[in-house]
TrEMBL record:
EC category: transferase
Keyword annotations from UniProtKB, A to Z: Metal-binding, Methyltransferase, S-adenosyl-L-methionine, Transferase, tRNA processing, Zinc, Zinc-finger
Record domain Methyltransferase TRM13: where: 26-101
Sequence segments annotated as region (Disordered): 1-34
Catalytic activity: adenosine(4) in tRNA(His) + S-adenosyl-L-methionine = 2'-O-methyladenosine(4) in tRNA(His) + S-adenosyl-L-homocysteine + H(+); cytidine(4) in tRNA(Pro) + S-adenosyl-L-methionine = 2'-O-methylcytidine(4) in tRNA(Pro) + S-adenosyl-L-homocysteine + H(+); cytidine(4) in tRNA(Gly)(GCC) + S-adenosyl-L-methionine = 2'-O-methylcytidine(4) in tRNA(Gly)(GCC) + S-adenosyl-L-homocysteine + H(+)
Pfam families, alphabetized: TRM13
GO biological process, one term: tRNA methylation
Entry function: tRNA methylase which 2'-O-methylates cytidine(4) in tRNA(Pro) and tRNA(Gly)(GCC), and adenosine(4) in tRNA(His).
Name of this chain's protein: tRNA:m(4)X modification enzyme TRM13
GO molecular function: tRNA 2'-O-methyltransferase activity; zinc ion binding
Enzyme Commission numbers on file: 2.1.1.225
Family: Belongs to the methyltransferase TRM13 family.
Source organism per UniProt: Meganyctiphanes norvegica
InterPro entries: Methyltransferase_TRM13 (IPR007871), Trm13 (IPR039044)
Length: 106
């Protein structure tokens, strides 16, 4: 039959748990701090551009269209039958275009 741990062992175990909790809280606080810094940097970047959010969204949408068109041309150049479809309205999400690619049966 095992004896109960000595009072000193119980204290060490409790101290270890407190140390772990403290480290976890510290890590959580560090993550929150990093997220706040990233958010502030993003806000600062946008304010430096001095562009309205609608205009930034439009530029982003056009850049995405250009990338999708490049992907489409690439797949066609590799012999695939490919086309773009809009599967939801852009008001729902800017990720609203799918590239449908199928082997060319020629």
């Amino acid at each position: 039959m095992m004896k109960d741990a000595s009072p000193a062992a119980k204290v060490r175990k409790t101290d270890a748990k407190q140390d772990i909790n403290s480290v976890q809280r510290g890590h959580s606080n560090e993550v929150e701090k990093n997220n706040c810094i990233k958010e502030a940097e993003k806000e600062n970047r946008y304010s430096r551009l001095k562009l309205p959010s609608r205009y930034r969204e439009e530029i982003g949408r056009q850049a995405k269209q250009l990338l999708d068109y490049g992907r489409l041309k690439y797949m066609k150049s590799k012999g695939f039958n490919a086309h773009l479809i809009q599967y939801v309205k852009w008001e729902m999400t800017l990720e609203n275009i799918a590239i449908i690619v199928m082997p060319n049966n020629t």
